[in-house]
Amino acid sequence: MKPMDFRGRWVLVTGASSGLGQEMARQLARDHGANIVAVARRAERLEALKQELEPTGVKVLPLTADLQKTEDVDRVIDRATEGEPLYGAVLNAGITHFGDYHELGWEGFQRMLSTNVTSVVRFTERLLPYLEKQGEGGGVMLVSSMAGLSPVPYQAAYSGTKAFLVHYGCSLYHELQGKNVSITTFAPGGIATEMTEGERFNSLRSWLMPVDRCARSGLDGFRQRKYLHVPGVLYKLLATLSNVAPEPFSSSRVAAEYRASLAAAKRAE
Ligand SMILES: NC(=O)c1ccc[n+]([C@@H]2O[C@H](COP(=O)([O-])OP(=O)(O)OC[C@H]3O[C@@H](n4cnc5c(N)ncnc54)[C@H](OP(=O)(O)O)[C@@H]3O)[C@@H](O)[C@H]2O)c1
Which atom of ligand 1 lies closest to the CA of 146? Predict the structure, then answer.
């Protein structure tokens, strides 16, 4: 298939109110001339994004939704597909828990599962047949994480949800061959966003990628319909090493770094 061409087309971005999603929405509009369906819970942030982007000549449709609720996901899909045709979707909204596994709690886990996994499956299984029917060569990008490529202690549940997305997205990639619609799985390492703002991440900040660079790389992978895309030389190297190093070795390195960061945050309390 030819690379995607976003100009003048509608692209839906979930989690467009902050961090990676907001930056990808910005770059899709500013650098690629795409119209944006911007989805998140914080309505005022989406409205501010509309005010920022529309003077550049694109259209922005803000849709406030809590993606933990299937009825909200369905409402967004209905609205996004009822007017001018949708060409692409970046399924980016996600939440994490960084700390001991038992702090997350059952309710916290349900929230994480519905946001990171269930909503993504719902969007994907409804949007792919729609995009295929449009016949425009559209596509979907799932935002997973390097935490989905190898186990991440102290983000155990999160790592599991992101591993689901890697397997789901990469499996569908093969199922879609010959169908004029594509799916890309994006797996960034740490990024400087609201997600990593807390004190617990203080000792890990030097590992974080600037959000604009990460967004640019992600959109490039999406445009080129990559199978599994890891941004940046350092993270590509780490992803390769995690494939060749014995898994308990690389995960124990992460555990040691994260344990130290959590201990430093506790001392600072
Ligand atoms: N930061 C990292 O180090 C990192 C690394 C690898 C992968 N990622 C992935 O990148 C994606 C974006 O994360 P980020 O770092 O940009 O985090 P962020 O700044 O915290 O942004 C998360 C976005 O998701 C939205 N969201 C969360 N729960 C939602 C819900 N129930 N309904 C609707 N929207 C919801 C938030 O909007 P509202 O709060 O307004 O609803 C926000 O726009 C996530 O999938 C994350 O797992 C992040």
Answer: 6
